[in-house]
Amino acid sequence: MIYFFYGDEEFNISNEIKKFKEKLDTNFLEMSCKTFDNPKFPDLMVAIKSQPMMFGNMLVIINCLNYLTSKKAEDKSFDDKQLEQIAEALDSCGENTDIIFVAQIPQDTQKKIDKRKKLFKLLSKYNTKEFPQIPSYKTAELESWIKTQAKTKELKISDEVASTILIQVGPNLRLLDSELEKLKIYAGKNPVTKDMVAEICVTNEDLFIFADYLIKGNQQKALEEYQKLLVKKHPLEILSVLHTLIHNSIRIKAYSSKYSQDEIAKMINMHPYRVKLEIQKLKNVPLKYLVKLKKNLTDSEYKFKTGQSAMGIEREVEYAILQ
What we know:
Distance between the termini: 52 Å
CATH topology of the largest domain: Rossmann fold
Strand order of the largest sheet: 2-3-4-1-5
Structural class: alpha/beta
Strand content: 5-15%
CATH architecture of the largest domain: 3-Layer(aba) Sandwich
Number of strands: 5
Shape: globular
Radius of gyration: 22 Å
CATH class of the largest domain: Alpha Beta
Number of domains: 3
């Protein structure tokens, strides 16, 4: 079967692909799952014609964003003859092979898929699904996503609890999924309550306070907030969110001299009023400081994950804060 997934919601795309991977034999995963990154035409044809090396199914993932977005001559889509060959190969795909074309748009870019391209029209003839990012102001849609995702984890969540989770955690789907996993362990077969959410889930406010102190260079207060967060969350989880917050601060600071408030809001999926507040907050914060801060945190995480740290991840983060 041929599938075409595109859009800017990375979590939903990766989650959909995960379902395909779960159907494969884990003993032969390296041979039965292949990923190609915008391959040139000859390599693309090889990828499409891939067959299972042994028994079972074959999954081929082809990242194709460059084919559909780039305006550079060397990255343009294929000519008519090549497109015909691609179409023939796709129509001849074996029943034991699933091919997924993926055009995942990075959220920090202004890339747009050109639906006029012949390749887009060709891929759209197959099993196509768009995965757009849900804007933060579409609370009803986000709450619906929370309830649907909770059902996949056999979690009982009411409309009121879903609203509480969204208010407390925020609109990031990957973070929301992580918090639902924690609630699953805590609640078991019992319905999730607002008290559980308050006790288990890290709040936006907690993280924002911590990030604000850190960005403003108030190390003592940042360390105090960090210790509070450790009660509810693993240091790597805190780092994951912190990376996003600081990355957004870097973009807002850098973009504020070139783009309007509304343009920045669209680029990073943030409410215009929040962008306005962030610009004001970052007014006296040097861009170089933000970049250095993110590098320090990245280095600490790298040292821990590669076994180069003798301090442990909690102390590594503390060290990064104090640098």
